[in-house]
Amino acid sequence: MLFAEMILVALQSVRANLFRAFLTMLGIIIGVASVITMIAIGSGAKAAVDQQIDQLGASVLSIRSGSFMRMGVAQGGATLTIKDAEAIARDAPSVIGVVPEIAGQLQIKHGNRNENLRVAGVTANFPEIQGYTIASGKSFTKADDASRRPVAVLGSAVGGKLGTNAAAIVGQTIYIKGIAFEVLGVFEEKGSTGFRNVDEQVWIPFFTARYRVFGTEQLDSISAQMAPGSTVERSIVEIERVMRKQHQIQPGKDNDFSIADPRQFFNVREAAANIFAILLAGIASISLVVGGIGIMNIMLVTVTERTKEIGIRKALGASRRNILLQFVVEAMVLCMLGGAAGIALGAGVTTLIARIAGWNMAISPTAVLLAFCFSAAVGLFFGIWPARKAARLDPIEALRYE
């Protein structure tokens, strides 16, 4: 029997028992759809993390206050000051830009709207170092900072929170802690960094924040941009040396500050997302095995039902090899049809999740190919035993079977 004929006979068998075939393929359909969906979710999570890493701008290290240990007990945290930022800019050769930041949650008023938002006082080089782009208007300058002008640049979502939109609010007045600030511009959307939504934040000149708003010299953080070609390790060592000297920390004593590369947190998240996706795909693969067992069971039933047909074929000259191939092909056709339906279901579910949740998910062609091939392999593996049973039937006994 030609291979094409075997496939045709297998399709006719499926058509003759359509509902039973569907129930048999259900495990394969769910397994393939689950594998494709889970891998798509994993790739979407990875793409989101990669986008967040890109949004961090050039290689930037973050220096924050940290507690120090005394006799095994964490003592009060030391503070960062503008002198620390100046020392890093002056004495760390691998650092080409520094942004000191004073920040806090404050009431923002515009018209009859009142919102509690994060306000950050930063220097004029903040957009360049942190990779921010102006969408409307302009940012403040060094002259604005030096003269302590009450001006502000808003995150893309602030206008909506204050009852207007990003473009319309430029040039208008908002009140921060009762002080009137002119809105100079609005940054392009950045999205959540994983710690906070920076689009719901307000930036003002550093010295305006220091002297007119917060009234403190204590910094929330210092951002240090590394020079091109400089390694993270080298920059951290240089910054640590400068900071320990500034804070007069004796050799052998713990740092009262911390230095971190924000990208490392996203790399950890990416690794966790990949592991989670692999775990889910592995669990989903179990459905394929379960579906294969279902196919084996139904093929054993089919062999019993078609015993007399097998006897007739053997009496007409069909060899054991012909019978074996026929039932293996039928099992594989069932699995491959289930695989094709599973691919369609997986693509539909992935698209639905992406639209509802707003996730950026991509269906991997490799995942589709692997899932389809695996479903065919399941059919081959679990179809061999029923096929061998059919091939070994005695033709006389088969013909006498009722």
Description:
This protein has two domains: 3-52 and 266-400, no CATH class; 60-260, no CATH class. The protein is built from 13 helices and twelve strands. The chain starts with a helix and ends with a helix. 55% of the residues lie in helices and 18% in strands. With 402 residues, the protein is of the alpha+beta class. The model is unreliable at 68-76 (pLDDT under 50).
Give a brief rundown of this model.
It contains 13 helices and twelve strands. The protein has helices spanning 3-16, 18-54, 82-91, 126-130, 142-146, 158-161, 206-213, 232-246, 262-305, 307-315, 320-357, 365-391, 395-400, and strands at residues 60-65, 69-70, 73-74, 95-110, 113-122, 134-137, 151-154, 173-176, 179-187, 201-205, 221-226, 257-260.
Write the layout of secondary structure elements.
Elements: H1 3-16, H2 18-54, E1 60-65, E2 69-70, E3 73-74, H3 82-91, E4 95-110, E5 113-122, H4 126-130, E6 134-137, H5 142-146, E7 151-154, H6 158-161, E8 173-176, E9 179-187, E10 201-205, H7 206-213, E11 221-226, H8 232-246, E12 257-260, H9 262-305, H10 307-315, H11 320-357, H12 365-391, H13 395-400
Count of beta strands? 12
Number of domains: 2
Walk across the major sheet and give the strand order. 4-5-10-7-9-8
Q: Which quaternary structure do these chains form?
A: single chain
Figure out the total of helices. Answer: 13
| Backbone CA Rg | 33 Å
Task: Determine the structural class based on helices, strands and strand pairing.
Answer: alpha+beta
Q: How can the largest sheet be summarized?
A: 6 strands, mixed, barrel
Strand content: 15-25%
End-to-end separation in angstroms reads: 26 Å
